[in-house]
Write a structure and sequence with these properties.
With 362 residues, the chain is an alpha+beta fold. It is 33% helix and 28% strand. The longest helix is centred in the middle third of the chain and has 18 residues, at 195-212.
Length: 362
């Protein structure tokens, strides 16, 4: 377990084995908290992967993985930083429910973390909370927690007939049409994925992002995807829709413990009349159930209530609220950085946080 006697320590991705052992010792965890996952976004230039470990005893501790980012603009000649959780779900992980539910323990954890941030010149903090771990509840008294929108999931403890009953009639018709069109489904475990598979998925995914006019944030270069599949192989399953021997749609599933997430989706535009996406998504639901997962996460939309969310909503009636957390640790520095924005500063209430990052985009 945690051997150090200090109240907290900080691990980097170079200490990935120990990082992962600690994460796996927690009551509940997901792939998004593993060193291997954060290290990928570190390599992509999105910050330095860190794991903050706060421990009061061998069975009462909390882990907090995040990316530490340099702020390009200096203030008073000094360099400052901010932190963010990577693409996906994040937030604190607990040794057990007793620690998670202990308000005094969480107050001490957050006081210690805030002190660390101030000492290290960390201006602000942004968390994408994990909706299935309710980890925002433990620290919501110590930061601003906002409801962003709903996400869709399947409760895989339900019988298959109930899952089918929760599927929208229009999607049932498309699933049946896809089968009649000769679309088959194939699953490839991450450890069996080939370089050709990755290249095929990359081509298909890039075409899908082009079709949706996605922002650069959602594009992944081929070298990044190669590293992604290599680092996360045990936690990945690739699901394919196949027609006449050729892949026409794909879902990248991330899986850990009780959770499975359709993390990335792609398709070939010219084959959309075959309805490969609906067939594939429903097959992924059944695959996750058959493989013992209790939740299949579909995520939400790019914006609240958009067409992507509406599409996912037709595969389940189960919704959860996706939440984010915002905290300013160095108020004077934050205001100095955001001073270029017109009007009154909104700080933790701002839609885009931290505000000075938005200012840097213009």
């Amino acid at each position: 377990m945690i051997e150090e006697t200090t109240a907290y320590e900080l691990l980097s991705s170079r200490e990935g084995d120990r990082w992962n052992r600690l994460v796996e010792s927690c009551e509940s965890y997901d792939v998004f908290s593993l060193a291997d996952y954060l290290a990928l976004y570190e390599q992509r230039g999105e910050g330095s992967a860190r794991l903050f470990v706060y421990e009061e005893s061998s069975n009462r501790y909390v882990l907090y993985p995040f990316l530490l980012r340099d702020i390009p603009e200096r203030v008073g000649g000094e360099t400052y930083f901010d932190i963010i959780t990577p693409y996906g779900y994040g937030g604190p992980l607990y040794s057990g429910r007793a620690a998670k539910n202990d308000l005094a323990f969480n107050r001490r954890f957050r006081e210690t973390f805030s002190r660390y941030c101030r000492l290290e010149g960390i201006v602000s903090e942004f968390i994408r909370f994990h909706p299935y771990q309710d980890n925002e509840q433990a620290i919501q008294d110590h930061m601003v927690v906002s409801d962003v929108g709903d996400i869709v999931y399947n409760n895989l403890l339900l019988p298959e007939e109930d899952i089918w009953a929760d599927t929208a009639p229009s999607k049932k018709r498309r699933i049946k049409k896809s089968k009649k069109n000769g679309v088959a489904v194939q699953f490839t475990e991450g450890t069996d994925v080939t370089a050709a598979d990755i290249e095929m998925f990359h081509t298909m995914y890039t075409e899908t992002m082009d079709k949706k006019h996605a922002s650069p944030f959602y594009y992944f270069p081929l070298p990044f995807l190669n590293n992604y599949f290599q680092a996360l192989a045990p936690y990945i399953t690739l699901a394919w829709s196949i027609h006449d021997g050729q892949p026409v749609a794909a879902n990248l599933i991330l899986k850990t413990g009780e959770f499975a997430t359709i993390h990335l989706s792609a398709s070939v535009k010219e084959h959309l009349p075959l309805c490969p996406n609906c067939r594939l998504r429903y097959a992924c639901i059944l695959w996750a159930k058959e493989n013992g997962f209790t939740v299949l996460d579909h995520g939400g939309g790019k914006e609240k209530g958009d067409s992507l969310f509406a599409y996912k909503r037709q595969f389940s009636k189960n919704l959860l609220t996706y939440k984010t957390g915002k905290k300013i640790h160095l108020t004077d520095i934050y205001e100095s950085l955001a001073s270029r924005l017109p009007g009154r500063l909104e700080r933790e209430r701002a839609d885009f946080f931290p505000e000075y990052r938005k200012a840097a985009l213009h």
